[in-house]
Amino acid sequence: MPQTDDTPENGDHATLTAPPTRTARALHLGRRALGLERDHDGFAVTSLHGDEAEAPGLDARETAQLRGVRRFGATGALLMALGALGAGAQPVLQNPVQGLRLLGLPARMPSVALTLTMTGSAMVVLAWLLLGRFALGTFRGGSPIRRLTRSQLDRTLLLWIVPLAIAPPMFSKDVYSYLAQSEIAARGLDPYAIGPAQALGVDHVLTRTVPTIWRDTPAPYGPLFIWIGKGISALTGENIVAGIFLHRLVALAGVALIVWALPRLARRCGVAAVAALWLGAANPLLLFHLVAGIHNEALMLGLMLAGIEVALRAIESPPDVRFRLRGSPADRRALALLVAGAALIALSATVKIPTLLALGFLGMALARRWGGSFRSVCAAAALLLTVTATVILAVSLVSGLGFGWLSPDTLGTANEVRSWMSLPTLLGLGTGLVGVLLGLGDHTTAVLSLTRPIASLAAAFVAVRMLIAVLVGRIHPIGALGVSLGFLVLLFPVVQPWYLLWAVIPLAAWATRPVFRVPAIAFSSVVSLIVMPNGGEYPPFIIVQAAIATILVCGSIIAATRNTLPWRAEGGASDGTRTGDAYAEVP
After folding, report:
1. Are 509 and 265 in contact (CB under 8 A)?
2. Which helix or strand (DSSP H or E) is residue 407 part of?
3. Kindly report the CA angle at 162 between 158 and 163, in degrees rounded to 5?
4. What global pTM score does this model have?
C-alpha cells in the first residue's frame, strides 16, 4: 500500500490521533460553558467593569449648581411627604391625621394629594439625574475632571431622606404585614404556620390594615426580622403609628449600613466612591421603597454588604496572613474578620434568604486565596458553612421561632403574586392571554409551571458560572455577586420594583461601563415613577389628571431654572480643548 503523509515512517509506532468522541465533545462544551477550560480567555461579563479614577472637587460655579440640585430634590421630597398625608399607604384605622383641619386636608382632596406626591417623586428623580452629572460625568467614556466630594453627597442624601423618614408609609403596605406578623410572634404563636386573620382575628386593628391578599398568609421572612418585630410589638402593642416609626428606624439602620459599606467596596474594585454611592444609595428606588416604603430589604442588603466588606478585609489581607487561631495577631485578626463577615451575611439571610448567595462568592474568593484547589474549596466551604449554620441555628432557637421559615410553603409565599416584571411570569401571562384570544383556553397556570422552573435552572447556571469565575480569578466577587443577583431577580417568579436593588447596589460598586449604568439609571428612573404612592390603585381619571399636572409643573420648573441648574451638558471649546467650566468632559 502506498505511503501517505499520515502513515508513520521508518517503523515509527506513534499512535494516530483519533477524532474526539461525542462524549468528549460534550464534556469539552460543558467545561467551556462553565468556564473550566484553562484556555478560556473570553469572558463577556468582565467588560462591565473598568477602573475609575477619583477626581478633584467641584469649582465655585459647580458647587452653586449642586446646592440648587440639592434644594430641588429636597423640595420634591417635601412635596412627597405632604402628599402622602392623603395619597400615602395610610392605615385603615388609627390614622393620626384623620379629622384634623389642616393635616387632614390632603386626605379630603385625593387628586391634589396624588398630584403633590407624583410631582415630588418626579422632582426627586430629576434631581438624582442632575446629581449624576457631578458624580459620573458623561456616558461616552472617561472620567469627569471634577466630582462632588463624599461630604457633599452625604449632605445631599441626608437632606432628601429626612422628609421621607417622617412621612407616612408610601408605595407599599407591607409594613402593616410586618406589624401583624410581629404581634403574632409576640403572642407566642407561630407566624410561619398561621396568618393574621387566624391568629389575631379578622376585626383586629392590625389585621384590618393588612392587604387582603396577605391576611391568611404566614410570614415569609426570616427569624431575625420577625424577632426584631416581636420586640417592637412588645414596646408599641397595637399602636400602629409607633410601630411604623420603629420599623422605619430599622430600615434606616439598614440604609446606614449600605452607605457605610458601598464606598469601601467600590474602592476595592477601583470605582469612584461617590459614583457608587450615587447609583446605589441615592437611587430613587432606595429612597422611595426602602426609606418611604419601609421594606426589610434595607436591613437585608445592609447586613450583606457590611458582611462582605468585613470578610474581604481578611481575604484581601497581606499574603503572609495564614488565618491561624494560634498564629500571630494578624492571623487571629484576619480569622476574626472572616468569621464576623460571614456571620453578618448569615444574619442577612435570616431576614431574607437570597443573600446566602453572597457566602458562595466569599468562599470562592477565600479558596482562591488558599490556592484554588479542590481541597481549598472544601476547606473554605466547611468554614463558612460552620459559621452560617451556627448563626442560623442560634437565631432560630434563641428567637423561639424555630425553623418554619425554611419550609417550602414559607419560601414560596411570594409566588401568590403574578408580577409582570418577572420574565418567566410575563412569558406565562402572555402565553395564557394568547391562548384566550385564540379560543384555546386559559393555560396560564400550566405555562407558569414550566417557565418558572426553567428560569430557576437558568439562574442557578449563571450563579455556578460566576462562582467558578471567581475561583479562577476572572472576576471580582462583588461583580460576580451582582451579576448573579441580577439574573436571580429577572428570573425570579415574583419581582417587585425594590427587588432591583438586590443587583443594582452591589453592581454600583463594580460595574462602571455605560452598557450597565445607562440601563440601570433608566430602569431606576422609570420604575420609581410607576408605583402608586398608596401601594394600590387609583381611578384612571385621577391618575391622568395628576400625570398631566405633574408634567406641566415639572416643565415649568425646568424652564424657570434652565440657567441655574445643569439641565444641559457642558462641552469643551471648539478646538477640542477643555474649558474651565466643563465639569463632566471626556478626557
Report:
1. yes
2. none
3. 135
4. 0.85
